[in-house]
Amino acid sequence: MTLVRFGWMQYSICAVLALGSFTANAAEDPLHAWTTGAKPALLETWVQERLAAEKADIQKLIAVKGERTIDNTVRPYDDALNELSLAGNEAYLMYSVGDSASLRDKGQELVSRISSATTDLNLNQEVYRALAAVPLPSTAPATKHYLERALLEYRLAGVDKDDATRAKIRKLQDRITDATLTFGRNVADGKLTVTASPAELKGLPEDYIARHKPAADGTYTLTTDSPDSTPVMNFAADTGLRLRMYLAYNQRAYPKNVAVLKDVLEARQELATTLGYKTFADLAMADQMMGSAANLKTFLSEVDEASRGAADKEFNLLLAYAKQQKPGLTGIPASDASYWSEQYRRAKYNFDAQSVRPYFPYDEVQAGILKTAASLFHVQFRPIPDAKTWDPSVSVFDVYNDVGSDQRKLGRIYLDMHPRDGKDKWFSSAPIVPGIRGRQLPEGALICNFSGGVPGDPGLMEYSEVVTFFHEFGHLMHHILGGQGEWSNAGAFNVEGDFVEAPSQMLEEMFRDPGILSSFAKHYKTGETIPAALIARMNAADAYGRGRWTQAQLFYSTYSLQVHDRAPEQINFDALLRQDAQRFSHFTFVDGDRMYTSFTHLTGYSSNYYTYVLDKVIAVDFFSQFDRAHLLQGPTALRYRRTILEPGAAKPAAELVRDFLGRPQNLNALKLWINEEFVTASRNHPAKGE
């Protein structure tokens, strides 16, 4: 992980840059390395041109004689970062979704090379001294913050160390990058299969079974990819099938990634001590909102106190129900957690998650999310059907402003939403092209793995998948709207890393609004609008389990912190996993669970997975400011766009929060959100049969 925050190396939400077809001469398009008929050599040529441009920008900066200014020093510095961002995004995309193993290999190789070039820039003392010599502007607060942030990142990178120490840092950073890429590649390539008999498919949706053709012996082969694994965990009635899928999913990069993760942690810890920090966790939080590992431990304790009571109550209700259905049951294994939660919601709230799937065919969901975002963010999405993309399934839209008479183009988005062989298996959003006011419009992409995208398959989505779509689209809009500023490296993905999930989690809350849902949720066969009573039951069922969700996030946050806040030789991955699971999860730990080998957040967010918890606190606080009866109308939506999204990284994230809320965030809204099911039960939970 580099200390200068480039989107292609920092987050799980990262990793993609949209590409179209390679041109004969890569220099014809300095923003994209088009991929139709892409070949590794052409990708390398394009990346090398970006790296050459970066070096030219730095030489221009260094060659300045006389007084240092924003124009002659900060501008070429930002131009250099822009070239590195373009090159890094491009190479990472090919590593993530390239259509051949050779192209993915070349992408991985180039990401390592670009990361090394980034480290060189981070440790360049001439550049640091030049930036430090620029007087801080008193009349341009965004530029002042940008320059102050850049100098901080340089110091955290070790630019002030002696030659030998900086050489050591460079080697450690390269080692971390290579190991991180190997970890992710092992996960992407680690698809496993599970065999099931026809009887074991009981409970799964009919369209799910229809997508899978039986072998000659009548058995079905299921994979650990999300469209296969998630329905099994939620709906399959057979305990054995759920257990086999659970273990396969959590072992898909085991044992390969055990040694790889150890290497990452050893190099990170050595980097931290070399830079004067006791642990990598302290280094990783030095430039974040949280500030330090000590602050994080206090925060996690406060959230634990706020959520544990609700989590206990939720589980006790669940266990009592499970015991009624299965006498003699003493506990619920983690592999059965989703299944029993689904069964409980059906009984308690008269809500079957499968009942809403017919109202969420993929194409209608995509259209509905675009419509909702257009209204909320005051923009227009115009399809570009002839745009060249890296795969025919990718949809492209140009984004235009829609505020009064201002109808200017703001950027472009790419939606790559269905699984393919060799494609990254996660759900992510990332910058494509950074925005620079007056020079370069931002572009961004979603890389997801929803069902559908093939003839005859409507891609019926679970409501949790629709929430995920809303979440990732929130990242995308943050990038486009926050990419209208003066500096390439001050866009939305350059805010403090522990703020980046707040806007996306805020947008999740919009999904539950009946008015928004009814505008696009139509039955894929009849065209019927989703019934209001069904939405009410869905929302009631969805409110159940928020305490346990929060406790689960504390589990991931604590585990991520603990593997980064001590000497690596003290870490036993399996023992620590079991210990933390028993502390935060009510479900019985399953022997053979090796989730840490495929938990890419450990190499992406490192110790800072807590971002999801902190940003849930902020997100529900943000959402509490909206008029629940008129979410898309009134002044709040535009005020949210102006104060939270548009500034990008033009000011500290804590200031963005205060600008919108009028105060710092607190836990009050989170407590209400967690306990909503219990507080509103008598008013909002329709009785079964209504």
- The CATH class of the domain at 356-544 and 605-684 turns out to be Mainly Alpha
Helical content class: 40-55%
Shape, please?
globular
Count of DSSP-assigned helices: 29
> How big a fraction of the residues is strand?
5-15%
* Biggest sheet: strand arrangement: 3-4-5-7-6
Report the major sheet: 5 strands, mixed
Structural class: mainly alpha
Low-confidence stretches: 1-27, 681-690
Give me the count of strands. 7
Return the average pLDDT rounded to an integer: 91
What name is given to the CATH topology of the domain at 356-544 and 605-684?
Neurolysin, domain 3
| Alpha-carbon Rg, integer | 25 Å
* End-to-end distance: 54 Å
Q: CATH architecture of the domain at 356-544 and 605-684, please?
A: Orthogonal Bundle
